Amino acid sequence: MKLANRTIKTSESGLDALFAATSADVISFAGGYPDGQLFPTKAMQAAFNASFAADQGTLLQYGTTTGYTPLRQKIAARLNRLDGLSLTADDILLTQGAQQGLDLTARLLLNKGDGVVVEGPTYIGGLAAFDAYEPTYYEVPVQSDGLDLTSLKKVLLKHEIKFLYTIPDFHNPTGTVMSVEKRQALVQLANQFDFIILEDAPYRDLRYSGERIPPVKAFDTEGRVIYLGSFSKILAPSLRLGWLVATPALLKAITALKAGADVESSHLVAVAVDDYLTHNSLDAHLDTLKTSYAVKKDAMVQALTQYMPKAAHFNNPEGGFFLWLTLPEGFDTEKFMLESLLPEAKVSFVPSKNLFASKSVINGARLNFTNVSVEDIEHGVAALGSALSQALAQPISHHG
Amino acid sequence: MKLANRTIKTSESGLDALFAATSADVISFAGGYPDGQLFPTKAMQAAFNASFAADQGTLLQYGTTTGYTPLRQKIAARLNRLDGLSLTADDILLTQGAQQGLDLTARLLLNKGDGVVVEGPTYIGGLAAFDAYEPTYYEVPVQSDGLDLTSLKKVLLKHEIKFLYTIPDFHNPTGTVMSVEKRQALVQLANQFDFIILEDAPYRDLRYSGERIPPVKAFDTEGRVIYLGSFSKILAPSLRLGWLVATPALLKAITALKAGADVESSHLVAVAVDDYLTHNSLDAHLDTLKTSYAVKKDAMVQALTQYMPKAAHFNNPEGGFFLWLTLPEGFDTEKFMLESLLPEAKVSFVPSKNLFASKSVINGARLNFTNVSVEDIEHGVAALGSALSQALAQPISHHG
């Protein structure tokens, strides 16, 4: 019984070790979870209730693959209002979180071996989605203001690529934001070298300081940007509800692919979320999230400032879920976490290795601050600092 | 901007014409929808309410890719009780309806060009799911007692195949049931020729007459049967909740693929359905469905007996959603429906051509009876009979 090549590759992705790193007595900076205390549970219960109460026999039936039109209209209106886009419901497909948008875009574009540019590091679930279509990856470093365009141009001059995957706002895993200038230049490169930009923006609405800047999609002149949004981080992950923005022509092809993948997303959930958005202010809910997450982020930055050894470097992101820790070259954060930090200090993070398509960078770590209490952030970072100081005092070959 | 080969193929699948065939003034026998009047709306509303009321902060959070364990336990227990299987929750993955099970199985097994046996005719959404992985199809006819095993053996002697896709219970589109003897023989062939059987059973619990027979999975001796079930036809499609049964080793690989495709299915929906199953009798609900659908099926068979011209043949299935109409060889049911039946008689069905991977059989049609009133069944079949009699009186070259 021979499995497909993609399956063999996927089972080596290292996701297992990542998930195994979570247990009750561990302070986990590894997850990418929103704070469960902040879910709008009562309002969501009311929205489901109202949807059932108003039902005329269609709520539990099949809807359409594209998705419930009033909700798509609301999503379009919101993006138009906040980001200066001019979308209608016809530009939007409802998806199973943003994750399915990653799968469907790869499915739309990739034949085996086709070129894909990914950021280094990038979202591990992006690689998991794309891996199924067996692309050739070209990795471009992420700088403090986003993608390294000089490095990107070198790739584009040598290789044909189908799409470039980027998380421009509060990047997963580094927390960085791509500058406006780079967003504009990236679209120009896409036009010049004929590729699609896959813009993944699940954290976009979670800015704690600084000014909101337009999405890459706002600079799109030739319909080359496929934009992914999600309610997972701003309302609730278990809704499994995201959206994909593309030109109507691309959207038609993507919708046909989604029909083959899962027929459609839940009409019931779409109706309930539409009701929630009708009777509640998402902006007010976002203010609650941002106030709380900003406090946690500041607590983590303060603790890191206090407890990290001098050889460790970290950033102070303006939003999102994560910040990025860099240890000296040659220091293996995966080995450190699995052999020392997790079993002894009972703290976990996501080591950098599997966040690079190339698996070439071993000295970084992603730290989440949204789903940890301020107290645990302080204790966990203190324990991390102590364990790191000890490990760094040892000969580096032990960790290399 | 070049799309993937699969995308170009998918946009030619003919699904568009099928969906376009539905409008308000049409009596549609084309759909595959359950009767919206029979949804357990009140009980489902109560289940969502109870789930929200009992929530300790996890209901709206990420769950696991495998899915909510109590629900997987209930599904296992039900299959064990009714079908003599010996499953645990560890054998079950929750999916987005059975459709995602089709996608994930193809993703698990297929490299481009790999062999897949499909029934002729088969579920059009099966072909849409598999098409994404660019298989080589081998089509085996469906007889009144299921798959033609003589024809299958000829294929197996000549070609290596990865899996065989079958809908053994109340087959979509023909309504036939595979005999027990053929189920046993099919498993033996899978063992002998080293392939997976993908058993798709969304209609299995909807038997209106005759005795329930074991699923193919019950005869599985080497873990070669992947079994798909769904709540879409027995509770509600908009839950988007199905399940996949496989050996733990295969399930582990499939779960990793699902994580890349959409992270997980909705934890909220799984908890609510689990609550529904705790406080309601699914068997009692099924009795309601079966009583109503049996009346509709009988009404359709009676109307066909009364109104069909002699040259038309149809079957009388023991369960499910569909029966199958056969017109004389050379009669093109797609042309007939699009040019005459739909615009003039305002009746629609699913013509056979796109239900065959080979597109070689043009004289069949699938008729759905579950989502049409008894009155519309009588009127629609009368109109169909009249239009068919007229068309058959014309020289066949007009339709050929």
UniProtKB/TrEMBL annotation, chains A, B:
- A GO biological process this protein is involved in? alpha-amino acid metabolic process
This protein's record includes keyword Cell membrane: no
Transmembrane ranges, per UniProt, are none
Domain Aminotransferase class I/classII large residue range list: 31-384
UniProt keyword terms in alphabetical order:
Aminotransferase, Pyridoxal phosphate, Transferase
Q: Which cofactor does it need?
A: pyridoxal 5'-phosphate
Q: Which GO terms describe its molecular function?
A: pyridoxal phosphate binding; transaminase activity
Check the record and name the Pfam families matching this protein.
Aminotran_1_2
Establish whether keyword Isomerase is in the entry: no
How this chain assembles, per its entry, is: Homodimer.
Q: What PANTHER family does the entry give?
A: AMINOTRANSFERASE (PTHR42790), KYNURENINE_ALPHA-AMINOADIPATE AMINOTRANSFERASE, MITOCHONDRIAL (PTHR42790:SF19)
Family per record: Belongs to the class-I pyridoxal-phosphate-dependent aminotransferase family.
User: Which protein are we looking at?
Assistant: Aminotransferase
Organism, per UniProt? Answer: Lacticaseibacillus brantae DSM 23927
